[in-house]
Every structure is written in C-alpha cells, then in structure tokens.
Amino acid sequence: MQTDPATGPLDGLVAALDIGGTKIAGALVDGEGRIRVRSQRPTPARDDGETVMGAVGDVLAELADSPLWEAAGAVGIGSAGPVDAYRGTVSPVNVPGWRDFPLVERVHKATGGRPVTLVGDGVAMTAAEHWLGAARGHDNALCLVVSTGVGGGLVLGGRVHPGPTGNAGHIGHMVVDMDGEPCACGGRGCVERIASGPHIARRALENGWRPGPDGDASAAAVAAAARAGDPVAVASFERAAQALAAGIAATATLVEIDIAVVGGGVAGAGEVLFAPLRRALTTYATLDFVRNLTVVPALTGTDAGLLGAAAAAVA
Amino acid sequence: MQTDPATGPLDGLVAALDIGGTKIAGALVDGEGRIRVRSQRPTPARDDGETVMGAVGDVLAELADSPLWEAAGAVGIGSAGPVDAYRGTVSPVNVPGWRDFPLVERVHKATGGRPVTLVGDGVAMTAAEHWLGAARGHDNALCLVVSTGVGGGLVLGGRVHPGPTGNAGHIGHMVVDMDGEPCACGGRGCVERIASGPHIARRALENGWRPGPDGDASAAAVAAAARAGDPVAVASFERAAQALAAGIAATATLVEIDIAVVGGGVAGAGEVLFAPLRRALTTYATLDFVRNLTVVPALTGTDAGLLGAAAAAVA
User: Fold this and answer.
1) Which chain B residues are closer than 8 Å to A91 by Cβ?
2) What's the structural domain count of chain A?
3) Residue of chain B whose alpha carbon sits nearest to that of A242
4) Residue B168 is nearest to which of A164, A246, A254, comparing CB atoms?
5) What's the domain range around A75?
6) A100: helix, coil or strand?
7) Which family is this protein grouped under (chains A, B) (predicted)?
8) What is the distance between the alpha carbons of residues B254 and B161, in angstroms, rounded to a whole number?
9) Does B77 have pLDDT greater than 80?
10) Hey, which of A121, A132, B16, B274 has its CA 20 to 30 A from A80?
C-alpha cells in the first residue's frame, strides 16, 4: 500500500478499482480527485475466476487497512469489457476465467455492503477526463482510448452517458468501412480493426516497413519511424487517423459533440497521429453542427481508470 | 381548416407545425395525441423568405380561428433541416429563401407570445414514434426516415435526445464507407449516399435496371421490380439495407439502443428492404449489448411530423 502525501478534507471519499488484463489497481480518491491511498496487484489473467477475484480481494483488503477506509462511502469499478452494468457482471476479453462474473455483488460483500457502481473502462476514462481532464466544462464530448483496442465513452448533456449496460461510447466497434476486413468482434470494418496499435503495426509490416536492430515492431516503433519520415509508417498512421476521424465524425453527427479527447498508448505518437486526424476530420465532419469539433489529447494519464471509477461512484 | 371529429378533454393541447419543402402543415393536438384541428398550405419553396413565412402565418391564422385555439398553451415546430434549436433558426436545404431564418422568434410573435420549441424533422418523427408508435415503451431507440434523404432521431434514457442544436440522430450523414463516394453534404460514404430513395433508383439504373412503360424510375418502382424478382433491383435494395444496417449497428454500439424504427417512403418497400436489413444487422451488430437489437416499421405515418412537433412542445 502506498499512501500519497495529499492531505485535506475527506468529503466525497470513495474507493476505486481499475481492472484490466495486466493489473488490478485500487485507490481511495477524495472529492477533489486526489488519490490518497493506492494498492495494486498483477491480474492473474490465465487463472480461474476465483483466483482473479482473490487478487481483487487483496487490493481491497490493503485499502481497508488504511485509516481513511471508513470514510469511503461507495465503490466505483472501471473494468475491461464487455461489462453488463445492468446485471453487475463482467466478461473481460483478456480474462477468460471471468465470464458473466458477478463482480458487483462480490465487491459489495467484500466491502461491508457499500454501494458499488460498475462501468466499462472506456466510460471510466471518459468520466475522468470530464471531471479533471480535457473534457472538463464540455457538456457533449467523446473520449477515446486508442491502445491494444479502441474504447471510448460519451458525455451528453453535461453527464457521462454509460448506457443501460455501461458500454456506450464503444467507438472501436463502430463500422466505418462496411465492405472492410473482418474484425475480431465478428463484424467487419470496425474502427478498431484499422486504428488500434497492433493493426497500425501489422499494416506497416505488410506494406514493407521493418523494425530496427532492437526488433521492436510495436505501434510506438512505427510512430518513431513515421517521425523520422518513413513513408510506409506515415501511411499506416494516416490510415488509422482516417478511421478514427470517420468514427468521431459519425459520433458527432449522431449525438452532437463539440470535443473528442484521445488517450491511450497510440495517442502517445503525438502529431504523427493528431495531424492526419485533424485533416481527415475536415473530410468527414462537414455539417454545420459538427464542423467546429476539436480533437485534443487526454490529460489524466495512467490514473484515468481509477479517477474515472471514482467519478462513476459519486455520479 | 379541417376540424376532426375527435372530442374529449383539451388537457395538454398544443399547436404543432410540420415544415417541409413541399407543404407546411399545422394542427392543434391534444394530450392524448389526437389531432383536433388541421390546416395546410403548399410551401412556396422557391420564393423569398418572407413569402414562406407568410404561408406559415396563414396556417397559424387558420388554426387561431378555431374555438380550441385559446386552450393551446405552447407551439412545437418540426422542420426540415438543418435547424439550430439553440439559436431558434432554420435553413432547410430545399427552401433556399430561409437561411438562418429566425423561425422561433417569428412564430412566438405570431402566436401571441406562446412558448415555441423547435426540433429537426427526424427528431420530430422520433418523438411521435416514442409517444404513440413503434418506439413506445422503449427507453433507448433510434428512429429513421428513409426517403429523399435519410434522417433520424434518438431516444436515450427514456427521453428524446435532440442534442444542443436539435440535429442529433442524423444517421443519414454517418460515415459507413470511409473510402466511398462523395456525398452532397461534403463528406463521403454517408448512409444517405447509399440508402436514400434517389440513390436506390440511381444504382439500379446504373446497373441496367430499366423502368416499365409508365417511365416510373423511382425507388418505389425499383421496389416493385425487386418484388417481381428483378436481380438488379433486389441488389440495389440489398446495398441500401447494408448501409442502413451498418449505421444502425454503429449507433447501437455507440449509445446502446434496443430498437430501430424505420419510416419514410422507402420503408414502404416492406420486406424488400426489411429482410436484407435484418440479415445485414447480424453481420454488423455482434457485441453482446447490441445483439438483441430489433428493426421494425414505423407506425405514425404521414402525421408523424405534426404529432412529433406536438410531443416536442410538451417535453
């Protein structure tokens, strides 16, 4: 357990869990969005469901050791999807031991009956950006996480819009190329199939880009090559940017947003991604009510999941 | 003026205007959704803005002649778009004399200072279907009008979601074919570019379909040919259905809806459209939380615009 040096009133203190395929992070977060206590475990992603739940229990137990624990009135969970907030279950793609796992009920019991709110990780990141990040003050926004997958969430009418099952804003599986390649979700031509980190790298390799002496064939390596002027690397990012722009423009056309906030590892490519993304948006976002849409990088960084889970708990 | 035979209490009576490129319809609608008084004028669409407003004034004056007028507490307007509900202006594509025309202010003055609510025609149709039609009882729905253009509207969390400017649900200009043909909106690969009536007819003609002796080359004639088994006509409807399915699936993925209601002239093609639409949806709507999506025909018919404008006035 790590206790952060932040001090101050404990008003609105909540417990937050950020559950992914690699780690399970927990925190006590105060009403100002400061992380007061932290705890973390690796996700035993290949083990059975009870073992994974055991790691969640360890994270919660460590938080409960804090003298601040009693002040935490509620628990928020942001989890890798799919989630079903209506039923309180999760089925994270990368955690096969959890299928329709009743996480809300289990965490409710493990925390002495505290109220528990579950959202998908894209919605959590959106809640964080709306509370403390680049979407702050925007009543209608789309936030995206472009990484191994492409996730997202919506702010509509001044509030995070999780949808009935907590999956709304799932821009990664919007169709932008209806005759396109089959996607892992079973559909075809999804934004994720074109714009995720692994697909940026795959496309560059297919078109002749080769990694350097270190053998790094990740999207980050493709981004470095693009910055150095490699035309195949540049083209792969441009294609990803085109798909993201089509998805963002379609979102704006459908629900009227005025800002798109892009986070996740691939957003770390900076202008290699953002410059063609802004250009491509002028192609697709043409109607009056979407033309002023802006695209900016996310601000809440690696704590987005925890801060967003905390925000969901108090919403 | 036509006075309908409906009788009963006047609770919730409102005045409604449905403004399109062909006609301007007005009505007094009671709280049960019954049209009690009607009035209508052709839209002088090629004339200057004041002449068009004159026709609106004539419709309103005729309604005001009714003994029920004094009971009408508010006015709802559904207008061909684009509209700007935030500023109270309209700029219907097919009425060039109205560009940023201050319709809300003008109707407010013409109706003795009654409160006026403006929505786009797609949102109005959605409000009608949610109140009295196929989307009744559904908290999360998409309604579409497939006709000369493709419009639509959203119900989210049990309420019609017009968006800040009244244009939300604009599915016709969602991108579903990011490398596709240029659209009249300035974008490319929009749903409307593939699925509207004129584009269904154009595609059939381009691929060798020929109208019968009556020379009717409309989408309705293509639908008749498709029903008779003409493979080119069938294929043109299948392509339209594919684009609509991609847009509907993208909408469900983004905001979580459980029903899509399809109205407008092209929906009159019946199973020629709906059968391939349901098939194509299984291709694109694959994630757990969208898989149970159903597609049904609209129920409110030609009065949808008036009923939806009335619903908007009381929302």
Assistant:
1) 288
2) 2
3) B178
4) A254
5) 2-125+303-314
6) coil
7) Belongs to the ROK (NagC/XylR) family.
8) 14
9) yes
10) A132
